[in-house]
Amino acid sequence: MEEKAPVANGKKRPGVGRRDRYIKERKVGEGTYAVVYLGRQLSTSRVVAIKKIKVGQFKDGLDMSAIREIKFLSELRHENVIELIDVFISSGTSRSLNLVLEYLSADLEMVIKDRSIVFTAADIKSWMRMTIAGLYHCHRHNVLHRDLKPNNLLLSPSGHLKLADFGLARQQPGPYDVMTPTVVTRWYRAPELLLGSKTYTRKVDMWAVGAIFAELMLRTPYLPGQTDLDQLDLTFRALGTPTEQSWPGVSLLPDYFYDPAKTSTADTGKKSGVYPAPSRDEMRMRFSAASENALDLLCQMTTLDPAKRIDTRDALGSEYFREHPRPTQPELLPKLSKRDDTESDVKVGSNNTGFSGALRRRGKDDAKSEVNKERERGLADIAKKLF
Amino acid sequence: MTASTDDDLYRQGSQYRLWSFTAAELSSIREKVNAHAIAKIKREHASQGLDDQPVEFLSVEEEQDLVLYYCGKVQDMAGVFKLPSHVKATAISYLKRFYLRYSVMEYHPKNILHTCLFLAAKAENHFISIENFTQLLAKVTPESILELEFTVAQALSFTLMVHHAFNPIHGYFLDIQSVFPSRIDEIGVAHDAARRFANDSLFSDVAFMFTPPQIALAALAMANDALIKDYLEVKFGRQSGLLEQLNTVIRNVRTYIEERARELSKERVVAIDKKLYFVSNPGKLRKRKADDDASAVNGDTKKVMTQKVADDLISES
Question: B164: helix, coil or strand?
Answer without folding.
Answer: coil
